[in-house]
Known about the structure:
With about 230 residues, this protein is α+β, with helices and mostly antiparallel strands. The protein has a domain at about 110-150 and about 185-225. Helix content is about 25%, strand content about 20%. The protein has 5 helices and 11 strands, in the order H-H-H-H-E-E-H-E-E-E-E-E-E-E-E-E. The strands form 2 sheets. Strands 1, 2, 3, 4, 9, 10 and 11 form a 7-stranded antiparallel β-sheet that branches.
Amino acid sequence: MDIVQDTNQKVESEEKPKEAPTVEQKPTSSPPIQKASVSADKPAPVSAKPAVGTSAAAKTKTVESEPDPVNKMRRRLIWTAVGGFLATNFLMFLRFFLPRTIFEPSTVFRVGYPGDFGFGVDTKFQQQYRIWVVRNAERLFVIYARCTHLGCTPDWKPSENKFKCPCHGSGYTSEGINFEGPAPRPMDRAHVELDPTGQIVVDTSRLFEWPKGDKGHFDDPGAFLSV
């Protein structure tokens, strides 16, 4: 029995693997690594160009390009013309809503004092008020400068001492009495009176007529001033 046990123990000892002896390894010190100089060895960074069509490329192009002064002036002129055209059309549109008033001179006005006028025909108010101030030895009256034929404005002819209508040749005396041409009757006279200061007030909305073949109104009160 002892022999058998010894044999078994021997077999088991042979089957166990032999362990290798552990050897302690000492850490080996590696030589220090020298850092290369960044400024000397490292190349300078190269700026990458943005790809065409990207927003970065558009911004770069906008910053780098300068506006052309000719194109800038051309755009300004175009916008000014467009604005002026629109403003004109807007004013024309508003014009339809405004009343169409014809501004005419007042029919009542002052011409001065009786002493300001000498004998004869005074034409200084013809352009402004369409009248002539006439003074003779007895009266001062105002003739409304309108031909009784077709309404033209006659001209005073000092050399001929008469009024002559340029339209159809009607002739009037210095007192506005017709004597030649197609005029059917004398020219009208405007209402005259003196205001509290002594000035002559003329009212062309109140006219005195001498109808053809009828009695005239040149002797009515207001048709003249006694001087």
